[in-house]
Design a protein that fits this description.
The complex is a heterotetramer of chains A (193), B (805), C (206) and D (263). By secondary structure, chain A is an alpha+beta fold. Chain A is built from five helices and nine strands. Chain C has ten helices and two strands. The chains are: A alpha+beta (193), B alpha/beta (805), C mainly alpha (206), D alpha+beta (263).
Chain lengths: 193, 805, 206, 263
């Protein structure tokens, strides 16, 4: 790449179109030396989170993780090595950077108290403590070890879970363990819809 | 997916994106890949460019896919079975089917019990009082060994082939035209192209998506497509198959990992009547219906035992049935699917809901009902990238009162909501499974923003903390909770690498990773989190992260790129790509060849060293062959045209049975249905290429491409109503309404159905009451009407009215 | 000494002149790459692009005032027509037979009308070129021809004007700087005007 | 260095708009919200911060509806009207590889290029007062990467390569399309501007207007006149004026008062 980079400095106008009045060409050789914005990035392979074509993408991040530096995404484009997309992407995939970097991303836990008309910020610690409590209370109240006919069912039907279609297999597997640990049967995802 | 599992044995896209380039005919119906899967569509364009493939597009709208197709046929939403039934009729009448394939690889030759029939809208066995079928006449006639009887000549009047011929004799081109609203000429032109794939050396693919699954007879509809493909000999062939284009990055994987009625790997959820593991295995391990059936599900005990070892580890012993009793059990006939879930929620039977990245207010049918149901919850946990309509459901009054006048003020809604900032794809590692069943590993590129956390940490924290509470305080039924293995190196945030290795499975005696599900045992010496993924992370390492570029067959299978379930097989049922003697139907396009007593090429969907004629070619089915006749489906073994539950016309085949008699319709107070008197037009919903679901209304790029919601209206109807492009209009159903500017177009045509012009009106999904760009939620319009097999709501084809406002 | 131009006339003239020179130089800078160095001298291409239209507008406005003041004096009389026919003799300083001029000779009058017309064209076409995103394309396509042609005519005229006033007819410049001329100058170059003014002065003196 | 080009095979365009977004992303354009225009088209026309637009045309012939989609952007003409019209040295340059690129350090914002362009492509930014258009991703092509729009195109509608290769490919494709029944298929490489480095394959080349392309684009004759003969005329008049008056002075000298004897 180095030789190509240096060559950029010499890209110049040919000026053939400039037959000027005085018969010579003043369309001088003009260097265009715009910095390639992905010249100094870290590249990570990922998969587009939208539809199920499964396009591979290259995420370009900048920032070396020094103590004050958090890597940030500067560009995302298709991964040419993928036989599926061969570097191509659709309009959604091509704007994935906007998704990752969106200023409307949630960055802290929010809590809405019963009857409240606003969100309030809450710490993770507080949120986890309260959520664990809610889950346990509901489980204690609703867990059925046996059904009406006295058959062992070990199930929890007053708590339901949904989601997982943009979570990885591994997270879905963990959600499955979570679900069966709790005894939850009502568990649905986007495949149903 | 229920349909494909019933027909072929597995509920997944049969072939794959890259393989579509091998097609000679592409039938796009019930989907719009040019807009919704543009990158997948590149293989359609490659087939068109390189193989001169013909594209047939059947759709209510002239879509971008239609724009590049060779043959476009407009049909009324929800008449697809009539169209496909017509293709079956056309193919059988003209003899345009692949006879050898049909004889060798399908159940066309199987005999059905006496008494099976179809009369005036119902199959035999209909019980009007119970509103259900007695399926005894739908079964194969069995011999003394319990094997199905055959007539290889296909002449027997009770053979599946003859029954099929009879059933579809009513689906003449004229009838199809009358029902669908196209002309008979348009239909036959399409049929002729589709049937060119009947030649042994031609293959055709079917691409579909939610335009098929979102009907009250969706599973039957997809079964009809599968039948067409079997007639054409297209299953197992490169460039063939029935290819579901799934709409979310890991919808396949999430389903593979289980939904309410399945465990990982499509093992069925235990029912209350299956008290022990033995009972469960007895009920769920099928018996071969033919002597030569490989009947792979016969290995269910190995899959289930290994899963239980994965779940309960050392706590799962032979003595305690490997912990089977801790798995929750549903009642025999109970259904906990989406529609039932929200019905029970509305009835106040659910306290808490945990949502990982799902948005029922936006994507569930009848938004008013979704809002009402959620407000009955005591608590809700939502892990998300953005604030969603669901997490803000309690604020709907303020944010969108005009659409939800009946919804309560926040002060009246007692639901406690936790909205947790989760990480997005770029911030997580792990695997997505695409529509082609390819498991592709990705790495995390950066950390989540601000205080956002990775999902595994949220789950790990919650699980560990609930457990701690039980340890400290005790509580009800601690055993299932405590015995679940959560022994990860960092239990508060399990490493996904560790999880992926567990999902692949290992031999507990050697401690080595398994090479595949062939090594699974039912004695508790193997552990495997999902048997179909076994082989994904072997001793050789993470196969899902492979990037090999070689393609030895030249068919775009790329065996060393990522890893595909099952067993890295790229084309399902590939054994059917050759005849019973192992001779490929098309020598130029053989994914599999039998050489030196082994099958080479793609991973064979067959025993790797078995002779060509040793087994049937569909190893996941007890029949050993693919099914035209599928008694597993609840409304009939053959697909029959039923009108959508809300339809503007009478069923032209049997007016006494208009809609699917088995369709699940809910009747909560807000679940109203309309009639064509008040709502004379047909409404459909769809995605636009510019947006993804309800997410990209938060991103700048997509918001620029399509900022505004709109209502797409045929120019004929617009003229009648003097609506001009851009005029504000209201679209309403018995459930609710949406307002937006009109987009008047020629691409929507008025259709002649039963002597009257039926207009269809369309609305794109994508908008909502939170986000960078806002608009109405189109599920204000849709009804709580579901397919009885899959539990998917009928989002296509409902009755609407249109007014200028 | 005879008063030729009052302060108002001189002020307007120099407004016109300065703006014209600026507009012409900046215009020339944007007219040819060979003359782009003028832009550098005048503060850079962007400055020139930004100020040229304003220079032009002030020029046109000032010229409007000038037109209102002088138009009535610029009508050609019968002597002028003869003068124009004999203008080659005038040019060769062989003025025998060239009719005497009034305050302005026919050449000056022609220059006045020509510059007025060119300015109108420059103004109109300039306004079109100023807003390429708003103006219809066909107008712009006309304007790209009209503007330079009018400018060529105008600058050509001004070259002659400057030569005549600063070099060819000594004493003229002072008329526009200080406002007066010598009787000899007036008599030599604008005899009819000289006769008129002296007559009026005689009368006044009387 | 060989001239590079972009081939747009409209028969393969599915209007997915990936190229629009890829262009926006690569060039770090600000994203703006649109107003409803009654079509699927993102914007009515190109904008100073939107250089790549797919035009959608519903077109009906003999009751047969076509929905024509076509990517529109700078054509990188061989004989570029913008370059001809541009007065600022180095503002519009032709790179070694034939790309017509804008160098905004030198652009003075006069907007002459807008008038010079027969395809109505360059756009003036109201904030920077400079003119913008597609650069053919000159920063990418310089290091051996394809332009962003081409790389992202899923259907091979867009390809990148040397102009010679692509012209041949385009001709082949047109022949192929003709054989498939599009009898008027052809290549759009208008000679009025010396050929373009953006080459189209049209299914109906006899009617490029149906796609929104000008039929026989040329550099407008007024622009050619302005930059040619008019310039010559001007030079003659200015030089002639200055030299003429100078020699007049030498030959005839000033008009002196005493040459006019009193009556």
């Amino acid at each position: 790449m180095a030789s190509e980079l240096s060559r950029r400095g010499f890209l110049a106008g040919s000026g053939t179109a400039a037959a000027t009045t005085f018969g010579f060409n003043l369309e001088a050789a003009t260097a265009v030396a715009k910095e390639l914005k992905i010249a100094r990035t870290t590249q990570t392979h990922s998969i587009c989170p939208y539809c199920a074509v499964g396009c591979s993408v290259v995420i370009h991040t900048i920032g070396d993780k020094a103590q004050n530096v958090k890597p940030a995404v500067v560009h995302i484009e298709g991964d040419p090595e993928s036989p599926i997309n061969r570097g191509t992407l659709c309009s959604k995939g091509a704007s994935l950077k906007e998704f990752v970097n969106s200023d409307t991303r949630l960055t802290r836990p929010l809590y809405r108290a019963p009857g409240a008309s606003e969100w309030q910020a809450i710490s993770w610690e507080d949120a986890f403590t309260r959520m664990a409590r809610r889950i346990k209370d509901s489980r204690d109240a609703g867990f059925e070890e046996k059904d009406g006919q006295g058959r062992v069912v070990n199930r929890l039907t007053n708590t339901a879970m949904i989601g997982g279609c943009t979570d990885t297999n591994e997270v879905n597997y963990l959600l499955g363990k979570f679900r069966f640990g709790m005894g939850i049967i009502g568990y649905e995802n986007q495949a149903r819809l | 997916m229920a349909s494909l599992a019933a027909t072929f044995g597995r509920g997944a896209m049969t072939n794959g994106w890259t393989d579509v380039a091998n097609a000679d005919v592409v039938l796009v119906m019930g989907g719009n890949p040019a807009e919704n899967h543009p990158v997948g569509f590149r293989f359609v364009m490659e087939a068109k460019r390189k193989r001169k493939a013909k594209i047939v597009c059947v759709d209510p709208r002239f879509t971008r896919t239609a724009a590049v197709s060779d043959c476009y046929v407009p049909i009324r939403s929800g008449t697809d079975i009539a169209f496909l039934g017509g293709i079956i009729h056309y193919s059988l009448r003209k003899g345009l089917y692949q006879a050898n394939y049909v004889r060798q690889h399908t159940n066309a030759s199987f005999l059905i019990n006496e008494g099976f029939g179809f009369d005036n809208g119902h199959f035999s066995g209909w019980d009007e009082a119970k509103n259900s079928y007695d399926k005894s006449t739908w079964q194969y006639e069995l011999d003394a060994n319990g094997h199905a009887k055959l007539d290889p000549t296909l002449e027997h009047p009770r053979s599946v082939f003859q029954l099929m011929k009879k059933h579809y004799s009513r689906y003449t081109p004229e009838k199809v035209a009358e029902i669908c609203g196209c002309t008979a000429e348009e239909f036959t032109k399409a049929a002729a192209i589709i049937c060119t794939a009947a030649a042994e050396d031609k293959s055709g693919t079917v691409l579909y998506a939610l335009g098929w699954t979102q009907h009250s007879f969706a599973v039957q509809l997809i079964h009809a497509a599968a039948m067409v493909q079997l007639l054409m000999g297209n299953i197992g062939m490169p460039g063939g198959g029935v290819n579901a284009q799934r709409g979310h990055a890991n919808i396949q994987g999430a389903t593979d990992m289980g939904t309410w009625n399945t465990l990982p790997g499509y093992l069925k959820i235990p029912r209350a009547n299956m008290a022990s593991l033995d009972d469960y295995l007895k009920a769920n391990t099928p018996k071969a219906l033919r002597p030569n059936s490989l009947n792979y599900w016969g290995n269910t005990p190995k899959f289930m035992t290994s899963l239980l070892k994965g779940y309960y580890g050392d706590n799962a012993t032979k003595e305690n049935g490997f912990g089977y009793q801790w798995i929750p059990k549903a009642g025999e006939t109970e259904n906990y699917g989406w529609g039932y879930m929200f019905e029970r929620m509305l009835d106040g039977k659910i306290d808490g809901l945990i949502s990982f990245g799902m948005n029922p207010v936006a994507n569930g049918p009848n938004t008013t009902k979704m809002l009402a149901a959620l407000s009955k919850l005591k608590w809700m946990i939502v892990a998300e990238n953005f604030e969603t309509e669901t997490s803000a459901f309690w604020n709907a009054k303020k944010l969108a009162e005009k659409y939800y006048p009946a919804t309560g003020e926040p002060s009246t809604i007692a639901t406690e909501v936790f909205l947790l900032p989760a990480s997005c794809f770029a911030e997580k590692d792990g695997t997505f499974v695409n529509s082609s069943r390819w498991l592709q590993w990705k790495d995390a590129a950066l950390d989540p923003p601000g205080d956002a956390k990775r999902d595994q940490e949220i789950i790990g924290q919650l699980y560990t903390r609930v457990r701690k509470l039980y340890e400290k305080e005790g509580g009800k039924a601690a055993e299932p909770l405590m015995n679940m293995q959560w022994n990860y190196a960092t239990p508060l945030s399990p490493s996904l690498i560790e999880v992926a290795r567990e999902v692949n499975g290992r031999d507990l005696t050697t401690g080595k990773q398994l090479n595949g599900f062939g090594e699974l045992k039912d004695d508790g010496t193997t552990l495997c989190g999902n048997w179909i993924y076994s082989g994904s992370w072997t001793e050789a390492g993470n196969n899902m992260a492979r990037r090999g570029q070689d393609d030895p067959t030249g068919l775009g299978l790329y065996p060393n790129y990522s890893w595909s379930w099952p067993a890295n097989r790229r084309i399902l049922y590939n054994r059917a790509s050759s005849d019973v003697d192992g001779k490929p139907w098309d020598e130029t396009r053989a994914p599999l060849r039998y050489r030196n007593a082994r099958w080479v090429g793609d991973t064979p969907d067959y025993k790797a060293d078995a002779k060509p004629d040793a087994y049937g070619s569909f190893i996941m089915l007890p029949e050993g062959v693919a099914k035209f006749f599928a008694a597993d489906l609840v409304e009939g073994p053959f697909p029959e045209h039923y009108e959508p539950v809300e339809s503007p016309v009478e069923n032209a085949l049997h007016s006494s049975v208009n809609a699917n008699p088995m369709a699940k319709i809910f009747h909560a107070p807000m679940d109203k249905l309309g009639t064509s008197k008040d709502f004379p037009y047909v409404g459909i919903t769809y995605r636009l290429t510019e947006h993804f679901h309800y997410w990209t209304k938060n991103t700048k790029g997509s918001s620029e491409l399509q900022t505004n919601f709109f209502v797409e209206i045929p120019d004929g109807l617009a003229k009648e109503k003097s609506i001009k492009n851009g005029d504000p209009v209201r679209l309403s159903t018995a459930r609710g309404h949406v307002d937006g500017p009109a987009l008047v177009t020629k691409r929507f045509r008025g259709l002649q159905v039963g002597g009257k012009t039926v207009y269809q009106v369309g609305v794109p999904i994508h908008w909502g009451f939170v986000g960078r760009v806002k608009g109405p939620l189109i599920n204000n319009l849709t009804a709580s009407v579901y397919d009885p097999n899959s539990g998917t709501p009928e989002y296509k084809g409902f009755l609407v009215n249109l007014e200028k406002i | 000494m005879i008063d030729r131009f009052n302060i108002k006339e001189r002020f307007i003239h120099w407004m016109v002149a300065i703006c014209f020179i600026y507009a012409a130089l900046s215009g020339l800078a944007m007219w040819s790459r060979h003359l782009f160095w003028i832009a550098t001298v005048l503060g850079g291409g962007e400055t020139v692009r930004a100020l040229h239209p304003w220079g032009g507008i002030i020029f046109a406005l000032a010229l409007g005032f000038m037109f209102r003041n002088w138009a009535s004096q610029m009508k050609l009389d019968s002597d002028d027509k003869v003068w124009l026919k004999m203008s080659h003799r005038y040019a060769m300083n062989d003025e025998a037979g060239v009719p005497p001029s009034g305050k302005y000779n026919a050449g000056q009058k022609m220059l006045f009308w020509m510059q007025s017309a060119f300015t109108l064209l420059l103004f109109l076409s300039g306004m079109i070129l100023w807003f390429p995103e708003i103006m219809p394309r066909t107008l712009r396509l006309g304007a790209v021809l009209v503007h330079p042609l009018a400018a060529i005519g105008s600058i050509g005229g001004i070259i002659l004007h400057i030569y005549m006033s600063a070099f060819a007819v000594p004493g003229s410049l002072r008329a526009m700087t200080r406002g007066f001329v010598t009787p000899g100058w007036a008599k030599a170059h604008h005899r009819k005007w000289f006769q008129q003014t002296t007559k009026i002065e005689d009368e006044r003196a009387r | 260095m060989q001239t590079v080009a972009k081939l747009i095979d409209t028969s393969l365009c599915i209007g997915c708009k990936a190229c629009e977004v890829a262009c926006q992303e690569w060039n770090d354009q600000e994203f703006t919200l649109g107003t409803f225009g009654g079509t699927y088209q993102t914007k009515p026309e190109l904008e100073h911060n939107f250089w790549n637009l797919i035009k959608f045309n519903e077109y009906e012939t003999d009751g047969q509806l076509s929905w024509l989609m076509m990517k529109y952007q700078c054509m990188h003409c061989q004989d570029a009207g913008c370059m001809k019209a541009c007065p600022a040295p180095g503002a519009i340059v032709r790179l070694d590889n034939g790309t017509v690129d804008f160098n905004h350090d030198n652009c003075i914002g006069c907007g002459y290029c807008i008038t010079g362009c027969p395809f109505d492509v360059p756009r003036l930014s109201p904030t920077t007062k400079k003119v913008y258009k597609c650069t053919l991703c000159s920063d990418r092509t310089a290091v051996g990467l394809e332009p962003a729009c081409i790389k992202t195109c899923p259907t091979n509608c867009l390809t990148f390569g040397t102009r010679t290769d692509l012209l041949r490919k385009a001709e082949d494709r047109a022949v192929e399309l003709q054989a498939d029944g599009s009898t008027h298929a052809g290549v759009y490489n208008p000679q009025g501007v010396g050929g373009t480095n953006v080459i189209y394959v049209l299914k109906d080349a006899s009617n490029p207007e149906s796609y929104g392309l000008p039929k026989d684009p040329t550099i407008p004759w007024t622009v050619s006149l302005w930059k040619g003969p008019v310039k010559l005329l001007g030079s003659v008049i200015f030089l002639g004026g200055i030299l003429g008056t100078f020699f007049h002075y030498i030959r005839f000298g000033p008009k002196l008062e005493e040459e006019h004897p009193d009556d």
